[in-house]
């Protein structure tokens, strides 16, 4: 499971739509959809119901969302801690 997959999942969950989430993440829809499918495959559970108007979280997705947000927040905090210690402002 990659951070990219978690970021993709959270964006789709919050936007409720793959197209809007793709724009938010500066991606196109096909790779974003592949991220979601790969995550669902790895977890062995469908996270979203695909509807005509977008994506709706299923119970497994609702349960996973809290954890995904927490993981991403922890990674962000770790990056800020390291940058504070080293005095760097950006990665790269």
From TrEMBL:
Residue ranges constituting the HTH lysR-type domain according to the UniProt record: 1-58
Domain of life: Bacteria
SUPFAM superfamilies attached to this UniProt entry: Winged helix' DNA-binding domain (SSF46785)
Gene3D superfamilies: Winged helix-like DNA-binding domain superfamily/Winged helix DNA-binding domain (1.10.10.10)
Keyword Transferase assigned: no
GO molecular function: DNA binding; DNA-binding transcription factor activity
Keywords from the named record: DNA-binding, Transcription, Transcription regulation
Designated name of the protein: LysR family transcriptional regulator
Gene Ontology annotations for the cellular component aspect, listed alphabetically: protein-DNA complex
Family: Belongs to the LysR transcriptional regulatory family.
Classification via Pfam families: HTH_1
